[in-house]
Every structure is written in C-alpha cells, then in structure tokens.
Amino acid sequence: MVTASPPLPLATASRPLALGAGGGVGVAPSRRRRGFVVRSVASDREVRGSASASTEEEISSVLSSIGSSAIASNITHHAEFTPLFSPEHSSPLKAYHATAKSVFDALIMNWNATYDYYNKVNVKQAYYLSMEFLQGRALTNAIGNLELTGQYAEALKQLGQNLEDVASQEPDPALGNGGLGRLASCFLDSLATLNYPAWGYGLRYRYGLFKQIITKDGQEEVAENWLEMGNPWEIVRNDVSYPVKFYGKVVEGTDRRKHWIGGENIKAVAHDVPIPGYKTKTTNNLRLWSTTVPSHNFDLGAFNAGDHTKANEAHLNAEKICHVLYPGDESSEGKVLRLKQQYTLCSASLQDIISRFETRAGDSLNWEEFPSKVAVQMNDTHPTLCIPELMRILMDVKGLSWNQAWSITERTVAYTNHTVLPEALEKWSLDIMQKLLPRHVEIIERINEELMNCIISKYGTADISLLKQKLQEMRILDNVDLPASIAKLFIKPKEKKESPAESEGKLLVKSLESIAEVEEKIESGEEDSILSEIMEIKAESEDVADSEKEDSEDELDPFVKYDPKLSRVVRMANLSVVGGHSVNGVAAIHSEIVKQDVFNSFYEMWPTKFQNKTNGVTPRRWIRFCNPELSTIISKWIGSDDWILNTDKLAGLKKFADNEDLQSEWRTAKRNNKMKVVSLIRDKTGYVVSPDAMFDVQIKRIHEYKRQLLNILGIVYRYKKMKEMSAEERIKSFVPRVCIFGGKAFATYVQAKRTVKFITDVAATVNYDPDIGDLLKVVFVPDYNVSVAETLIPGSELSQHISTAGMEASGTSNMKFAMNGCILIGTLDGANVEIREEVGEENFFLFGAHAPEIAGLRQERAEGKFVPDPRFEEVKEYVRRGVFGASNYDELMGSLEGNEGYGRADYFLVGKDFPSYIECQEKVDEAYRDQKLWTRMSILNTAGSPKFSSDRTIHEYAKDIWDISPVILP
C-alpha cells in the first residue's frame, strides 16, 4: 500500500461523507439538503444541522457494481487518507483499519437510507435496551451480510494481504460478558435481516469487563484495550447528547409539577454502530452512550493552584460511569456506580426515543400514540429504571397526569427475565436510590402503593394471612413502613382484659374471703402472713385503677413497620413485572418456573402478561461465517443456501444422515475445524493436542450452578482410573479426549476463581504425565470471547451443558453447538429440554436430577439423609492427596460437604449428579468409537436445530410483544 488510488465511488474527496445528527449519516449530493432538529427532553436544547439523501437507485447501482479492483483502490485510499499510522508503517493492523473503513463506506449508504425511510413512513419501532452487547468482530460479519466476502478476499490478495490475517487484527468489542450480551447481538442481526424497524441501546465501556490472564495463581484481571487503536465501526455523534442528573432534591413549582433540581449533572454522548442485515438494504443502529461533562466543569483555578485532582474531579466522576462493565459492588461506591450506569442507559435512551417520537410526529403530536409508535424491551432487570424515568419525563417534563403517564408507560415497556437465581433478581438499596434518584423513589413509592391496593382488591381482607403473604411476595419496596391506609388492616387485637368493674368485684369477694382467713390466722398465731396478703390485695387494687388509665389501642403487626436490623430495598424484578405489559422467559421450562415459582403471585393476578420466547442464535455468524466449510456442505446437500434465512430447510439433511458420502464430507469438515482449534490452543496456551482425540468443550461464564466443578471432577476421576491401569487397559477402556474449558469468573466471585485455579492445576499435571500422553489433555483457554467461540464451536464434538436442573434460564451456546453438529451432554435444564426434543433423545446424552426433584433433594441433604456415592468420595480424597500440586482445595471440596451452612452442603448437587454423570460419559465413549453412528448423530443435531434461530425468536417478539411489522426499503 505505497501509492494512493482512487477510492470507491461511495466516498471520495470530491464527494465527501456528510455526518448527520439524530442517528443518520448521509452521502452529500449537491441537489437537496434538508434541516432537522434533535431536541433534548430534559434541556429542550436544539441541535441543528443538515442531512442529505441519495436515491435508492444510486445505492443499488453502487453496491452491485463493486468489484475487487475498486475495493482494493478504496482500501489503499483509506490507508493513505484516513490514517491512524505513520506513512512508512505497513502491517496487517494498518490493513485492517483501512479495510474496515472501506466496508464502512459500503454500509453507510444503506444505513442512511434505512434511517431516512423509517422517519418517512413513521411506523412503530422497537428499542432493545441492554447493559451488554457481545458483538464479536465486525469485519467478516459485515462483508458476509453485504455478500462481498469474495471481493474483499480478492482485493486484499491483490494488495499482498490475506483476509483471515487482516480480520484477526480486530479486537473483540468489550461490551458484554456472556449469554445476555450475545443474545442481544444475535437479536440485532435478526432484526436487521428480517427488516424490522429497531434499534439497540447500550453503554460504551472503555475497559470492558476485564481481560483474563491465566497464571500459576489462577485467573488475573487486567483492563481491556479494545479502544486503544480506535473503533472504525462507530461514528461519534457529538451533536447528539443528553443531560443525566444524579442527587439533588425534588421541589414543586408554581405550575404544580415536580422539579428535580441541583445535584450532579453529566452528559451522555451517542456513538452509533451500523448493524447490517443479510441480503437486505436494511441497516439498523446500535447506539452506545459514553459519559462526560462540558469543558467548563474543569476547575482551572484549582488546577493552577496545584490541586490537580480536584480540578478534574467532575470529568472523572462522569467518565468512570462507562469505564467498566459490572464494576465490583462490594463497596457502597461500587453500588452507586452500578446504579449510575443503569440510570444513564435508561435516561439517555428514553430522552433520545422521545425526541425521535416528537420529531416524527411534528405538528400532530399526540402522547396517546406513543405506545403505538414505540416499544421498549428491557433485557433483564438492568434497564428497570426505564419505568420511573418514562413516568418522570411524561409527568414532570411533558405535563401529563399520573394516570396518562402510567397508561402510556405500561403499554410501552416489556420485560425479559433471564434468571431464577435470587441474587440475580436485583434488589437495590432504597437508601442509596433515595439519595441518587430522589424523584424516581417518589414515583416508585406511589407505584408500590397502588400495587398493594390492587392486591387488596383481588384478595380481600377475609383471609388476612393470605393477604399478608401476597403483599410480602409482590410489593416493590421491601422492609418499609406501609401506608397508614394499608397498615390499619394488620392490627393485632390485644388480649382482652377484665373491665374495672369485674376486677373490683373479684377483689371484693377475695377481700371478704380474706377477712374470714385473717380471723382464723390470728387465732392460730400467723400474724406475719396476714400482712403479706393485705399488701397483695392492695397491689391488685392499684392495678385495677391503672387499667382505667391505660391506652386501649391495639398493636400493629410488625410486618407493616420498618425493621432497622434489615436493609430497605427496591425489588427491581417486581417493578419490571408491574410496570410492563409483557413478561417473558427465554425457554419453555424457564417460563414455567417463572410462572409457577419466581413470579407465581403476579401470574395469578395477570396471567396474560406472561409468555415464553425461547432464545435463538443467528445462523449467519454461528454457521455461515464461522463454519464456511460445513455451510458449503449443507447448501450442497439441501440444494441451495436458502437455509441461511430459513433454517427450517436444515431439516432436509435428515434424509441424508446415513449417506456415506455426506458422512465422509462431514467428518472432513470437522477434522479441518479441529485443526484450527489445535492451532488456537497452541497459540493461547502452549499446549499441543492431537486432532485425533475427541474435542470435549465447556465454554461459558464460570459459575457454581453451571458446574464446571462437576466437569473437572469427572476428568479427575477419569485420570485416576487411567493411572490405575496398564497402558493396554487404558487404550482399551478410554477414548482419547481433549477437555477444553473457557470462561471468565467474576473478579470478586471467590469460589468461581478457585474453580479456574483447580482446572489449570489439573491441566498442569495431566498434560505433562508421560503415562497418559494424548489419551487425556485438559486445556483452559484464557480470555474467552466471541472470536474464540467462533473457532472452538465448529471444531467441537461434545459440548457440556450440565447446570443444576432448573437453574439455567436457557443458554444459547448449546444452540450454537447443536447447529454446528456438536453432540450435547447435559441435564434437563434451560433450552436443553427443547434441543433434546428437536434433535431426538437418542442424539443427546442426558444425565442428572430433574428440576421438580431439586427442592426435595436439598431438603434431604439438610436432614442429613444424603449418602454420597463412593466414587464421589474417592475423587475428593484423590484431590486432597495433593496429586495436583500444593494448592489447598479444602474450601472447594468443602463446598461439596456438610448438610448446612453458607458455602457448604453442595447446594448445586454436584455430588448427587456425579455418578449419573460419569456413567453417561461412559456412554459417550462407547458412541464415539462408532464413528458412523457419531457422524449420524452429528448430522441430526444440525438437522434438528432450525427452531433455535434467532430469526424465529424475533418474529415471535415482533408479533406477540412489540406489535411491529417488517419495513422493506424500496
């Protein structure tokens, strides 16, 4: 790339790209310009600029005429005129940035056309709010969706570069952690591909969650560096920003409206990322917010006085909101920062959505139409503050009444639940929220009171214990004083005392009786006891007198009063259920647990709110682009590549499952993908593994309920048994395996980090054991991310989804593995249930307790009735013997022992499921030895995966929750 060549006709020096505000960017022809206004809801400030539109004919002709030579010229142009590197510098990284800018040119025209057309037709649009978007690399996905992969590969070849090498230079955007963020990104891909009008909203984390490094001490965390060289896939909208307020106080103005004043003010700035659909012009938008403050907040006086920290304090406080995904919340500062993140996402996004609604409505603005133009989906409880924030804006800024605002909010917002784990159903400190968001607490308090009145209306007061139970389960604010009107229902009558007249009558009788006794005692010489009895009668007489003065009020049930020994909390999940018109789970079994357990009382009250939307993954990224060799085979045998947009056609593979030619091609593709995994493992860990072994993979967030500990203990058992055998016996008894782990343990999750350390210690012992050789290898791939998954999944043969039944909401990696012909071993949990139904019971390795049994098994454990399997005791003792190094695993093994106590009693039932698990693994070995059978199972997994496309899921959301329709660009 030493000479400048003319760029693509998409963006040239004489025909520059013009950036437009409010979500669009435009190619600037000279014919027509139009003004526009972006209005901030909070400040009512205006940003004026110009945007321009090119005709659809220009877009179509330009994109269809792009050839490899024109692309090569455009890449060269960007290498010289969009420089991030010195002119003499040449490298694959420089080639990547120039290539990305070239692709961006191709995207930007469709991006503009999409945005302009949505404005023109003003249809209802969905907005997906999520704290995570785990996108993966953009380059190969973008050129694949544009159907330009071949042209770009050839263009880079002309320039002396290789597409795969250039694409590998792209860092994964550090905007997510696990399935929640990956699901959100799959949904964005499907929304664009299916031509649905929709945007995503998230935060632009500078340092991500963390970059995981594996050392001899286990997992260590360092900041992500994905933005150090800039992000060529985004446009910073410096003219699209909104004020976000914290702290301050609430006052009532002369207009009778509430005004939130004072406090700390920051600015949320938009960064837009194009989301192209596959084989369509539709290019939707992901808008990410960064946070800052205006320059005048820099205290120049303090700086010149030498107090440099104070001078920059406002900037630091604002910018740190978007520094890290899920900052540690052990400290009060961490809790405040997390709450600031969630509110920033909600406030900035809603202001932007409302601004767009007002702009599109023009002079015919009618707030009652807001729910018919806007659908807001909250991806888990993180965006729950959308509910009080939308209420605040509608009432305090737009002047609507409470009833109007509530009706609009409830019809606009919907909630997706992703967990049944109590710790994941967020509960925020009311005291922290009161300080940080005082107006929102007022709104939540009223929602809570109206909810409780609704509960009372439904259940009545005849069964006061039932009413108390329902209020305790359903109320949003926990451990607070109930309103007086509700508290009076829970008066406990005092034990009835005798009336003064009754007491005096009894005393009179007693006195008369005593006179007779006195005479007898005097005669018998018992004068001392006489005085004592007289004093007793006198005291009882005084009690009668005092009772006339006592307050006769009855006692309140402690349930209605704040208990200072406990925290006051806001239950965000309850608020999400109450404030939205729809609540959905993400797998059939999960949605039933949501209805029958997690939110059962809400389900009784509003059964029509609840529904299931089984998750899905995009077949573009997760088969077509990450597994091109298998994709070619599928298209060949099905007869077309229509399955990429209609996965139902994958079922056409079933009739060829026993065809020897297909099986041979299938195994060859798998072998080639395994070779890529071999290279990845060598590059990432230094370990050398054999592609002839079975590749057994568990890649997911490290958590006790996901039971990586069960997996590694199974491996330890396997290793122990191998060591007890002769070399000949080992080969006869065991199929060679490479056991691959990947995933991050949250930085403060001690038990999860212990598990990572244990896995790496086992690997260090097993992998260097000359007796074992290639018969067993254990690998922990560091810093697991989307790009790693795109290599591991196509090359995997067995995938482990072994969570405790009833604890995994859905899972999405299980779907990706099945699509790529990997066979699953797992429990009946999450989407495993549906995958097993679709691929066939005989093509899924099932073990373990079932969800309805779990509560009883835990109770059995608590009562001391559980008897562990001898093999389980054997493997724990083997670990404690020090076989895997000098590390102390007492805490890790101790969590599997005992009958009660925090961090004890094997809450996740590893010991209970262990014998079933290792017996199931023996069946895996047996099946793998018959490669014809195994290949057939693999083909049938792919053929049985059509249901698990995110296209199907999005169609269901669009129809059943959002009420939106596809919009085809002309």
Supply database-style keywords.
disordered N terminus, alpha/beta, single chain, six-stranded parallel β-sheet, 38 helices, 970 residues
Short description:
It contains 38 helices and 28 strands. By secondary structure, it is an alpha/beta fold.
How would you portray this structure in words?
- The protein is α/β, with parallel strands linked by helices and 970 residues long.
- It has 38 helices and 28 strands.
- The protein has a 9-stranded mixed beta sheet, with helices on both faces.
- It starts with 16 loop residues before the first strand and ends in an 8-residue tail after the last helix.
- The relative contact order is 0.09.
- Mean pLDDT is 89; it is low at 1-57 and 547-552.
Distance between the termini: 38 Å
In which order are the strands of the major sheet placed?
Answer: 9-12-13-6-5-14-15-21-22
Structural class: alpha/beta
Low-confidence stretches: 1-57, 547-552
Q: How are the SSEs placed, and which strands pair?
A:
Layout: E1 17-19, E2 25-27, E3 34-39, E4 46-51, H1 56-64, H2 68-81, H3 92-121, E5 125-129, H4 139-145, H5 149-158, H6 163-167, H7 179-193, E6 198-203, E7 211-215, E8 218-222, E9 235-246, E10 249-252, E11 258-261, E12 264-276, E13 283-292, H8 300-304, H9 308-311, H10 313-319, H11 332-361, H12 370-373, E14 374-379, H13 386-397, H14 402-412, E15 413-416, E16 427-429, H15 430-436, H16 438-459, H17 464-474, E17 477-478, H18 484-487, E18 491-492, H19 500-524, H20 527-547, E19 555-556, E20 569-571, H21 572-579, E21 583-585, H22 588-598, H23 600-605, E22 610-612, H24 619-625, H25 628-638, H26 660-685, E23 694-699, H27 708-723, H28 727-733, E24 737-742, H29 750-766, E25 776-781, H30 786-795, E26 798-801, H31 813-819, E27 823-826, H32 832-839, E28 845-846, H33 854-862, H34 870-880, H35 890-894, H36 910-929, H37 931-943, H38 950-962
Parallel strand pairs: 5-6, 5-14, 6-13, 14-15, 15-21, 21-22, 23-24, 23-26, 24-25, 26-27, 27-28
Antiparallel strand pairs: 1-2, 3-4, 7-8, 9-12, 10-11, 12-13, 16-20, 17-20, 18-19
